[in-house]
Each structure stands twice: as structure tokens, then as C-alpha cells.
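Reminder to self: C-alpha cells first, then the designed residues, so the page reads top to bottom the way the pipeline ran.
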């Protein structure tokens, strides 16, 4: 039986907000070089749209993908890069771009790595900031849409690798 999808953020609303975020980010890094890092796979569409709204003469783009392994709960799990960044971030301003911040563990891991590598500053941008299951006290600097709870798909986000290509955000309604 096909999954039931309920629209949470329609395409127009999504794209208007992404343009606003791009303008905010442009102002924040005026006159400063910036490395924007896309956290794969989920952020790929958001990142592609967002960077086209960032005006920065010295913008560099990079990609990272994480994998976690180990036993069940988030605390028992280890995070590694299945694809590491390629740009040297030492002394640079870095913007991490996520699809959704949920527990906060993946962003926390990335922040630690970037700090160790000597980034000059690190800020976090996410399309969706989901609060219900947050376990890490972290500051999201640029949040597209707050979400209290629910499992969402579309605009890069998947359920078992499905629905990433959809140009809107949907709640996956359990049967
Ligand atoms: P966190 O480490 O718990 O903050 O979440 C990391 C990742 O889990 C996100 O970047 C997403 O890829 C995935 N995720 C969390 N919530 C959702 C959801 O509602 N839909 C799809 N993926 C999600
Ligand atoms: Mg993600």
C-alpha cells in the first residue's frame, strides 16, 4: 500500500523562505569569504537552491556525508565520514547546511570536527529545525522552518531513500 503524504510546506512557501535565508546569509558574511558545506544526502536540494541566493565573491562549496554504526541508540553509535570535506577550512568561515536538525547529534559531531580543523567561525543553517527529540543544546543560526514533531519527507529528505526528489515537504502519515 502506498504511503500517505500530507503537505507541510508547499513549494512556493519553501522557495520564498530559502530566498530569505540566502539574503540573511549574504548580509551576515558581507566582505568575508565563506565555505558552505552541504551535508549529504538530505541537504542536496536545499543547498542547491540556497547557494544561488547567497551573494559572496569568495564562496566555496563542499560536501560531506556521514555514516553512523554501532548499537541502536544514538548515544551508543559512532559517527564517521563516508565522504569527507575536500576544502581546507583552517582560518575560514564555515556554514554547515543541513536538511533537518533532529536530535542534534550529527551537527554536534560536525561542529567538533570543524573546530579541530581550525575553522575561523562555524554557523549552522537548516531547512527544518525539529525540536521534539533534541538531545544536544546547540544554536541553529539560520532555520528555515520550525517543526515541533513528525516525520517528514521531500525536498531532499527521505524515507528508505524515497521521496527526496519532491519539491515540497510532506509529513509521512503512518497507516
Ligand atoms: P540528528 O542527528 O538526529 O539531528 O538528525 C540527523 C539526520 O536525521 C537529519 O539530517 C536527517 O537526515 C535525518 N532525519 C531526522 N528527522 C528526519 C525526518 O523527519 N525526515 C527525514 N529525515 C530525518
Ligand atoms: Mg541529514
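Designed residues (175 positions):
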Amino acid at each position: 500500500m502506498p504511503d500517505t503524504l500530507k503537505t507541510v510546506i508547499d513549494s512556493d512557501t519553501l522557495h520564498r523562505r530559502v530566498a530569505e535565508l540566502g539574503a540573511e546569509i549574504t548580509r551576515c558574511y558581507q566582505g568575508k569569504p565563506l565555505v558552505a558545506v552541504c551535508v549529504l544526502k538530505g541537504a542536496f536540494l536545499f543547498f542547491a537552491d540556497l547557494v544561488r541566493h547567497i551573494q559572496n565573491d569568495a564562496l566555496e562549496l563542499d560536501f560531506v556525508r556521514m555514516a553512523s554504526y554501532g548499537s541502536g541508540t544514538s548515544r551508543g553509535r559512532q559517527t564517521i565520514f563516508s565522504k569527507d570535506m575536500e576544502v581546507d577550512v583552517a582560518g575560514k568561515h564555515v556554514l554547515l547546511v543541513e536538511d533537518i536538525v533532529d536530535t542534534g547529534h550529527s551537527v554536534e559531531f560536525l561542529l567538533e570536527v570543524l573546530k579541530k580543523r581550525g575553522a575561523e567561525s562555524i554557523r549552522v543553517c537548516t531547512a527544518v529545525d525539529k525540536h521534539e527529540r533534541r538531545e544536544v543544546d546547540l544554536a541553529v543560526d539560520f532555520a528555515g522552518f520550525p517543526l515541533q514533531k513528525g516525520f517528514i519527507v521531500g525536498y531532499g529528505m527521505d524515507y528508505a531513500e524515497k521521496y527526496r526528489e519532491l519539491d515540497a515537504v510532506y509529513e509521512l502519515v503512518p497507516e
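The domain at 12-70+77-150 is CATH 3.40.50.2020 (Rossmann fold).
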